[in-house]
Design goal:
heterodimer; A: alpha/beta; six-stranded mixed sheet; 16 helices; 21 strands; B: 370 residues; mainly alpha; two-stranded antiparallel ribbon; 15 helices
Chain lengths: 530, 370
Amino acid sequence: MTEPEEGRTAAGAPSPETPLFEARGIIKKFGDFAANDDVGLTIRAGEKHALLGENGAGKSTLVKMIYGVMQPTAGAFYWQGQPTVIHKPAEARALGIGMVFQHFSVFDALTVAENIALALPPQRMRDLARRITEVSEAYGLAIDPRRAVHTLSVGEKQRVEIIRCLLQDPRLLIMDEPTSVLTPQESEMLFRTLDQLAAEGCAILYISHKLEEVRALCDTATILRQAKVVAHCDPRAETALSLAEMMVGSEIGDVEKRGETTAGEVRLKVDRLDLPSASEFAVALKDISLEVRGGEILGIAGVAGEGQSELMEALIGEVAVERNDAILIDGQPAGRANPTRRRRARAAFVPEERNGHGAVGDMTLPENIILSHHSAEGLARGRWLGSWLDFAGAADWARRVREAFDVRSGTENPVATSLSGGNLQKFVVGREILREPGILIVNQPTWGVDAGAATVIRRALIDLAGRGTAVLVISQDLEEIFSICDRIAVIHHGRLSRSYPVAEMTAEKVGLLMGGAHPESTEITDVEAA
Amino acid sequence: MILLEPRPQPSRALTLLSPVIAIALTLVAGGLLMAAMGRAPGQALYVYFFQPIHEFWFWLTLPADQAAMWIYTPAEVVVKAIPLALIGAGLAVCFRANVWNIGAAGQYTLGAILGGWIALSAPEDASGLWLVPYLLGGVLAGMAWAAIPAFLKVRFNANEILVSLMLFYVSTQLLDFLVRGPFKDPAGYGFPESRDFGAGLIMPVMVEGTRLHYGVVLAVVACVALWLMMGRTLKGFEVRVIGAAPRAGAFAGFSRARTIWFVLLLSGGLAGLAGALEVSATIQQLQPTISAEYGFTAIIVAFVGRLNPVGAILGALVLGVSFIGGENAQIALKLPKAVTGIFQGMLLFFLLGCDTLIRYRVRLAWAARA
C-alpha cells in the first residue's frame, strides 16, 4: 500500500488538500464498554480544532490513542494520508505530535532547562538554554530557563510543557483542557500563543468543555457524546446553546419528569454564604443562598471548577464558614458545626471523589461504614479513647448496603479499592441513603459510573426524596439534572443563580447561566478575575 | 525485564512474610560483608544472630533449677527490648498517621534529663515511691520535646522529620552541658557525670541475678493498650484514616491537626518514659551518652513489627538479639561496634524493599517485542 493515494503528489509530499491527520472508524473498548465508538476526526495543517464533549464522552480516550498511550480496538489513523500505527508516545513525537497534559509531568527540583533536556536528545545545556530563550521570546512564553520549576506558577509550568513540545517542532499540538488550571489572564496569553502557532501552520487539537473558550479560539470542532461523534461544525458559526445541545443531546428539557411532588418544610437553608478561596486556584464562594424543602430535589448545574467542590466542603463542614447561621439544618444553625455534628442533625453527604474522600481505598467496607457513621449511627459510643467501635454493627450495615444496592464484590468484606467504580459509588451513596437522612447532599452522584449503576443511584435519590428527605444534587451532567431534579440552579465563578422550577428551565437558560449571564435581563453578573 | 504489577488487594501473607524475607536477605548480605572483612561468614553470622537465639532456646529446655543459673543472656535480650518496644510501639502509631517522628532519640534524652533532675533533687534515702514522679517526669519531658515538631507542623507545615531529627542533636548538647555543669557530681573527680541515683530511684530488678527490671511490665502493658486502641477504638480508627486518606478523615469529621498532636505527644511521651526507665534501670546516673540510639533503632522495630504495637514487642526482641549479637561479635570476632548499626540498617533497607511486594507482584517478562 505504498502507492500514492488520491490527493498526494507523485513526489510523495502532501498536497494542501490532504489532511495532516485523520482518524477513521476508531473503536476503543474496555470490556463491554465502548469508550470510543466509530469515531472519525480530520485535522488540517494550521487548523485550531476543538474536541468538545462532556466528562466521560470519550475525549481523553481518543487523544491518548492519537498520542500512542493506548491502542484502538479497531479503526486506523492516517498521518499526511499514510496509514500509521502509533505504538507509543515516542513514535507520536517522532511524527511531530506533541501533547500538553492537564496534569504536568515536570520535576519540581530541576530547573526549566533541565526539565526540557530530559525530553530531548542529549545536547549542551548552554545551547539548549539559548534555544529555550529563542522559542520563549518568539511565542510570548516568557520564562527563564535557569529557574527551578518549584518556583513557577501553574501557568508558567504549563509554558515549560509547551516549550518542550515546541522544541520538537510539532506539526500537531494536542492541548488537554489547558485552561482548567489557568487564571483568565494566563488563558488570554495562551490563546495568543496558539493563534501564532496555527498561523505558522501547526495544527492544534484543543480539548475542552468550555464553550465560550472554544468559540473564541477554534475554527473547527468535533463533538463527542457518549463515545460517538455527533457533529462536526464551525464553532464560530454556532451559539453556546447549540454547542451545549450537541454536547448533552437535544433532548435536554424534555426528558421524562417524575411525578408532581409535594414539597414540605425547608430542611436545608444556605443563607448568603461567603467563603474566601483557600488557595490561588480554588474558587471563592460569594453570597450563595439556597433552600431545599423536604421531598424535593434541587440540582446545581455548572461546568467543572466553578466552585462545586468548595461548596461541597462548606456543606459537609470540612471547612467551617464564618457565620454559624449561613447554613441551617432543619432550622438549626450549623455553619460552624463539624461534619459529625451535622450528621447527628441527620444530614448526609456524598462527595465527588469516592476513593480517598468518600471512602478510604485500603479499608474494608465495614470500616468505610464507620468512616461516616461512627457517631451519627452509634457505631462508636462515648468520646475519645473510651469510644469502642462496634465492628459487628458495621459489618451488618455493610451487608445491608450491599444487598439494598446490589454492590457486587468478590469477597464478603473487601477493601474499597477492589470494587469497580460503579459498585463503590453505589456503596457510598447507599451507605448514606440507608441512614434515611433528613438532608442528603450529593456531588456528582453518577460520575464515571456505568449506565446500570447510574440508574440505580438516580432511582434511589428520587425515592429518598419521595420519603420526605431534602436532596441537593450537584452535577455537571445536565441530562441527569433535568431527569431527577425539581428545581435547578446554576453555579458560575463561585456564585449561585436563583433556582428555577425544572418546567420553566430550558437548555438555553442553563447554557446562559453557565456562561455567567442573567437569563432574564442583560445584567452581567460578574467579571471578576480569579 | 522485571515488571512490578499492582495487586488487586494488598497481600496479607506478604505483610507478615516481608520481615522474614528481609531478615534472610540481611543475613546473606551480612555474610558477604563478613567475608569482605576477612571473617568466616558462617561463624560470624552464628555469633551475630544464632548464638543469642540458640542460647535462648537452650535455656528454655533447661530444668528450672539450672534455668535460673543461665538466665543472664535471655534476660539481657529482654532488657534491650524494653526501651525498644516502648518507643517502637509509639512510633508504630505515629507512622500509621503518616507522621514521621524520627527524633524519638531526642525525646528519650529529654525524658532522661528531666527524670535525672528529679532523681538528683530527691533525698539520697528517697523511697521507691519517688519512681512515680520520676517516670512521669520522663513522660512529660518527652511529650514536651515532641510538642515542638507538632506545633511547627500544625502551625507552619514544617517537616516533622527534619525538626524532630535536629532536636535530637539539640538534646545531646543539652545533656552534655548539664552533666558537665549543673548536674556534675562534685565528688566525681571532674568526670562529666552526675552522682549515682539514690537506691529508691533505681528500677527494681524482677529476676535475681539479672538486670531484668519491672519496666518489662510497663512495656507489655503499653504495647497491648496501644494495640487495643488502634484496632478497637475510634481514636485508633481516626489515626489510621488520617494516615491513609487525609481528605476522607476530613469527611469523617476527624481533625488532622489534632491527630498530629496526638501521635507526636504519644510517641514522644513513650520515648521519654523509655529514657527515664533505661537510665534508672541500667545506667543509674546521667552521663554524656545514655544509649539514645534506641530511639533510632526503634524505627526499625516499628517496621519489623508491621506498624502494629504488639508487633513492636516481637520487633524489639529481634533487634535486642542483634544488640547482644553485636556485643558477642566484638568479643569473639574483634569486630567494631559499628557493625551492629550496619546490620540494623541493612535490615530496614531490605524490609522497606520487601514491603513493595505487599502491593505489587514481580513478573519476569522476556521482552521480545521490537
